[in-house]
Amino acid sequence: MLQESNKSSNFIIFLLLLTANSLLWVKQEGFFYFLFLNLIFFFHYKNNFSHGFYFTLISSLFLFFFIFVKIYYFESLRFGGGINSNFVDNLNPIILFQRISLIIKYIMISFIKYPIWIIIIFSSIILFFKYNFFDKFYFLYTFIFLTFTFIFLIFIYTPDDLNWLLPLTLSRLVFPISGFYIFLIIILLNKLKI
Q1: CA neighbours within 13 Å on the CB side: how many for 185?
Q2: 95, 149: one domain
Q3: Tell me: the pLDDT tens digits for 33-89?
């Protein structure tokens, strides 16, 4: 039984490594999701020291290889549109409140635009209140916090007009994240079936 559990654990870690590595190469924001997944594994996985060590080592090799390719072949590791000289102005409480309000508005619109998010939120609420699911898997709080903080920071940092930018780009960021949370629907369906 212990051996089977070990094999299952090894497979999950291997799958996480492959997923995290593929994120590096797919989209610009994949670099940050790679970091998020590694941080979550590093801080929340306490079962086996050797697993943690090898995961960190292999992830670091993936990251260094990615950085090497970007710098050697593309001569840059730069993301997005460069430095925002107006960033300090965006931290003015009034401007910050306006920007955060706009971001929340368009996140809500994205949730309606992609109904999978409605199902994910509904499933999460049931799992939270009826099954105390998040108490057992509290790393999800970390991931939710990191992913949505990342979205807010992108749009708070940008010098562009959010009224023009958010309708065009926010849904492109919000929809792919649903893939990370879709397992919550499956878990709820399995619990309801039981």
Answers
A1: 12
A2: yes
A3: 888 888 887 777 666 666 677 777 888 888 888 888 888 887 766 655 555 556 667
Count Cα neighbours of 162 within 13 Å in the Cβ-side half-sphere. Answer: 23
Structural tokens at position 74: 């593309």
Over the chain, what is the mean pLDDT?
81
Its pTM stands at: 0.75
Claim to verify: residue 124 and residue 143 sit in the same structural domain: yes
Query: What does 122-168 look like in DSSP terms, one character per residue?
Result: HHHHHHHHHS-HHHH-THHHHHHHHHHHHHHHHHHH--S-HHHHHHH
What would the two tokens of residue 59 be?
């992830």
Residue 63 main-chain phi, psi, to 5 deg: -65, -45
Angstrom CA distances, 33 to 27, 113, 138, 169, 185, stand at 10, 23, 18, 17, 21
Mean pLDDT of 178-185: 88
pLDDT band per the 50, 70, 90 thresholds, residue 121: very high
- Structural domain ending residue among the three candidates 63, 79, 95: 79
Cα–Cα distance for residue pair 20/36, rounded to 1 Å: 9
Do 22 and 92 belong together in one domain?
A: no
Tell me which DSSP letter residue 114 carries.
S
